[in-house]
Amino acid sequence: MLGSKMGKIAIVTGGTGALGSAVARKFADVGYDVHLTSLFDAQVKAWQGPGRAHAIDLANLEAVRAFARDFADVHALALCAGGYAGAEIARVTAADLEGMMNINFKTAAHCLAAFASNLVAGSAAVLVGSQAYEGAAGSAPYAASKAACVTLARSAALEWKPKGVRVNAVLPDVIDTPANRRGMPDANFDGWSKPEEVADVIVWLCSPDAKVVSGNAIKVGR
Length: 222
Known about the structure:
39% of the residues lie in helices and 19% in strands. The chain is α/β, with parallel strands linked by helices. The protein has a single domain, classed as Rossmann fold (3-Layer(aba) Sandwich). It has a 7-stranded parallel beta sheet with strand order 3-2-1-4-5-6-7, sandwiched between helices. Helix 1 (18-29) packs across helix 7, helix 3 (61-68) packs parallel to helix 4 (94-115) and helix 4 (94-115) runs parallel beside helix 5. The longest helix has 22 residues, at 94-115.
């Protein structure tokens, strides 16, 4: 059983990405045994941060359930896996819709379903939404997938309140990542949130200090 003798367990999906790796390091800094996921074997093998990396296809519910069975209690679930692709409504394709729902909504939904029985009283899950969830011109599939994440977090918070498990969503604006800098080279990078700043909020939401915070969609940005 992975991590069964290591104290508090944190699962970070998309943990080799810019935000996920910052979250993994923050959890390790405050004493969690960290397990992170990536879709890509190469990223897992190259991981040199804290904890242990696992190659998991989060779009495959049965694969996620099998991963969850390797753990006993889980105390923090940070669902950072996701991605962005723009698409104008008039030109949207089935692949656009399926791609955004798969990478943003389904990955989160599969993890909540798979780890539902692992989350113990006092534990917490945090989903990464976006401030675009209320709508975004040129990015409707992305915005809709993030809106689904926000609703999913709220539903899970209501469903799991009786067993003492908290669920929230964080809503970053633009995060200062290499990919975003490449995509928007003329932007003012100083106005973007750093991955470590968003990670601070996620880790705080999983801490005892946030024991009365659940079912919220919390905007994060400068």
